[in-house]
Every structure is written in C-alpha cells, then in structure tokens.
Amino acid sequence: ATFGTLSERLTDTFRNLRTKGKLSPADVDGTVREIRRALLDADVALQVVKEFTAKVRERALGDDVNKALNPAQQVVQIVNEELVGILGGEQRRLELAKTPPTVIMLAGLQGSGKTTFAGKLAKRLEKDGHTPLLVAADLQRPNAVNQLQVVAERAGAAIYAPEPGNGVGDPVKVSRDGVEHARRQQHDVVIIDTAGRLGVDEELMKQASDIRGATRPDEVLFVIDAMIGQDAVNTAKAFQEGVDVTGIVLSKLDGDARGGAALSVASVTGRPIIFASTGEGLDDLEDFHPDRMASRILDLGDVLTLIEQAQEAFDEEEAQKVAEKLATEQFTLEDFLEQMQQLKKMGSMKKMLGMLPGMGQMKQQLDDFDEREIDRTEAIIRSMTPVERTNTKILNGSRRLRIARGSGVTVTDVNQLVNRFEQAAKMMKTVARGGTPNIPGMGAM
Ligand code: GDP
C-alpha cells in the first residue's frame, strides 16, 4: 500500500532509538540521516526532505523537547508534528461561494483521475443536498465528453456538454456557457472538467488559464496521481505557476505509490490537500486530514498512544503539585458551608426527580436527605465569628454555648457539626494529597 515501505523504515529508525537518558547529537544525526534516506527512497522531493530533516534535527537537539517523553518518543512526536506540517497542517475543506453557483475547476495531467474525481465530488455534493452541474470542457480527448457523461449518470448529476458532432468546440466557451447554464437552471455548484495532457505543455496551460479567467472559479483543484513519484513536484509547480491552483486532490492513494507525491505536493505548491481519492468507485473519496495521514504514514498508532499516556501522566504530576499546594491551605467552615449549599440544591431536585418514572430507589435516598438539617448547619456556622469559622480549635465550651443559643440549637448539635466538619477537613486533605479517603462506615476504598 501507499507509504508501506516508508512506514516500515521510519518505524525501524524509531525502534533503534534508546528509550533512556538524553539523546546525544550523534544519536540525532544518525536518526535524521535514516529519516532522510527513507524519505528520498519514497520519492519525496529533495527540497522537501531537506527542509523536513533540518527542522527535525533542530527541534530534537533543542530545548523545546517534551520533557514528559523519553528520547525515542520525543523524536517520534517531532517527526509526527513536522509531517503534519508538510502535509498542510490544519484540515482545509472545500470552499463554497456565498452566492451560488460555486465554480470548481479541475486541472491536472491526463489520466490523473480528474474525470473520476469530478463524478465523486458531484456525488458527494448531491448527498449533501447540493445540485451540482458537471461541465465537459475536455474537448481534446475524443472520448472525454462521453466518459464524463457516464460518470455523471453514475453520480446522478446533471451535465453540460457540447452537442456531439459539432466538431472541436472551444473549451473556454463551453466552460463559460456551462456556468451560465448553471445560473439559469439553479445549479448551486459547477464542476468544470478540463483537458489534460500526458505531460505539462504550454498550450494546455494557456487553455486552463483562459478557462480560469473566463469562469472565475472559487476553487481550482489540481488533481495529482499519487503514483507519479519524483515528477510530482515539477508537475505541481507548473500547474501552480500556470493556473494558480487553490487546492490539491491526491488520487489513487489506494495504489502502491511510495507516497512521495503526497508528501511533497502541499509544501511545494503551498496549497492544501483537500481530498484524497482512494479507488475507482464514486464513493472512494475522503476528506484529507493532515494529522490522520501523518499517523498513517508513521504507522505508529501504538507509539502515539504511549506518547499520549506519558503526556497524561505528566499532566497528572502537575495536577499533583497544585493539589499539594491546596493541601497546605485550610479547608474552612466557609468551604463546608458552601458544600452544604450544594447539597441543598440537590434537595430541590427531589421534587423534579419524583416526577420521573423509574426513579423509585433514587427517590427513597432523596427522601432520607433532610433539608432542615442543612438549614440547621447553616444557622450554626452563621452564628460563628469569622475567626471561629477558620479555626475550630478555639471552640471551647463557652463559645459553643454562645453559638448554640445564637442559632437556636443545642450544644450537642454544635458538637456534632464540629466533629463532622473536622472529619471532612481531614478527608479533603487526604484527597488533595492524592490519597484515597477513608470514609467512615465505608472502610478504606
Ligand atoms: P483523467 O484523464 O484525469 O480524467 O483521469 P480518469 O478519471 O479518466 O482516471 C484515469 C484512470 O484512473 C481510470 O482508469 C480511473 O478508473 C482510474 N482512477 C481514477 N481515480 C482513481 C483512484 O482514486 N484509485 C484508483 N485505483 N484508480 C483511479
């Protein structure tokens, strides 16, 4: 499959990296050399390989490495991120015009998969509720119009084509008329299939450029066969300069391509890959996601998961630090009061829950919950001075008596509250330190 060998070689490279200690510059250089060879052998353009490896090297040697990861994981993470980068970074979707019709022009070499893609896109758009019109502007190849007709029929899409037997038409006029036809017939998207040649040539480029000028497309998609290897770069550059494409469609990604075109074309043209074509069927069309493609190339699902886990463990350590800070601060009766009020909110849920069917057991538990007790607790705490609320140690007999009188309860009630609070405070401290609380009556959890 595409990227198969590249994946294997990169995986081998990573496997050879030590998992302990710090990477030496020699380790990094060795690794970068391996990556470089693997990419070149996969037909990635030299220019792209150079930039890529330079970045990986710089980052692997720099201070910006992720300290949560071991050296091997750090390199994998860097390579992964840089791969996402050369594949275009963020996912880019097809852009539809605010005022229809959206005009999408397709360009590319003959046999690149343009016509097939036209059908795939039309079918996709139909599914999404659009009313695409296919325009047959490839009047070069005798059978091209016919082929688009077949594709349109399979996609269930409308087509605009010059009458057969009218001799060789003018593709620029056909394109312009096609857009006009779409406007009249209320098609909201126009897909123009243009002529391709076996190689880049000036006449073809001029024609494509003229069609672009005549139809002012919202998107000019350059369809490129992922199998074409090193030629990809020159072809892509030529189309970028000649027609100014807005996005790229990688076709035949289902084949045995070594993947070089896929890896080069976005960074060489500076244009995003929007779709991946993955078969001859009209449903074989995927939105292109740089990050998913990178993961697929690295073939490192497991390793990436490990990295995520390491990262999470690291985050947990950070959380632990915050928790320790919290543990030194005091949990006061004010906090306790706040928690009580949270509980009270639950009390008012009682009525609501009671109305729901099947809540029998839950309702019983809620019935046991005494709202008045919370009110009593609240009253007791409110009868304390601010100093008493932050430090229960000073609550001697006379203070307790004063509080009991102030809140209309007995001293026993006050004692019970203070005891409960002190237990809760202890528990909060344990939890904050990362331990498991020993809740009375429940045993150690
Ligand atoms: P065009 O000349 O650019 O219009 O290219 P076509 O659409 O006619 O495609 C050329 C050949 O490639 C046809 O045989 C298609 O069936 C085949 N093809 C197109 N897209 C794909 C694809 O994504 N995967 C595979 N395996 N074949 C494809």
TrEMBL record:
Name of the featured protein: Signal recognition particle protein
Function, as annotated: Involved in targeting and insertion of nascent membrane proteins into the cytoplasmic membrane. Binds to the hydrophobic signal sequence of the ribosome-nascent chain (RNC) as it emerges from the ribosomes. The SRP-RNC complex is then targeted to the cytoplasmic membrane where it interacts with the SRP receptor FtsY.
SMART domains: AAA, SRP54, SRP54_N
Natural source organism: Microbacterium betulae
GO biological process, one term: SRP-dependent cotranslational protein targeting to membrane
Calcium among keywords: no
Positions with a binding annotation for GTP: 108-115, 193-197, 251-254
Recorded GO MF terms: 7S RNA binding; GTP binding; GTPase activity
Comment field on protein domains: Composed of three domains: the N-terminal N domain, which is responsible for interactions with the ribosome, the central G domain, which binds GTP, and the C-terminal M domain, which binds the RNA and the signal sequence of the RNC.
Self-association state and partner proteins as the record states: Part of the signal recognition particle protein translocation system, which is composed of SRP and FtsY.
Enzyme class: hydrolase
Superkingdom classification of source: Bacteria
Span of domain SRP54-type proteins GTP-binding: 272-285
InterPro entries cross-referenced by the UniProt entry: AAA+_ATPase (IPR003593), P-loop_NTPase (IPR027417), Signal_recog_part_SRP54_M_sf (IPR036891), Signal_recog_particl_SRP54_hlx (IPR013822), Signal_recog_particle_SRP54_M (IPR004125), SRP (IPR004780), SRP54 (IPR022941), SRP54_GTPase_dom (IPR000897)
UniProt KW keywords: Cytoplasm, GTP-binding, Hydrolase, Nucleotide-binding, Ribonucleoprotein, RNA-binding, Signal recognition particle
Gene: ffh
Principal localisation: cytoplasm
Known EC number: 3.6.5.4
Pfam families: SRP54, SRP54_N, SRP_SPB
GO cellular component: signal recognition particle
Alphabetized SUPFAM superfamilies for the sequence: P-loop containing nucleoside triphosphate hydrolases (SSF52540), Signal peptide-binding domain (SSF47446)
Subcellular location: Cytoplasm
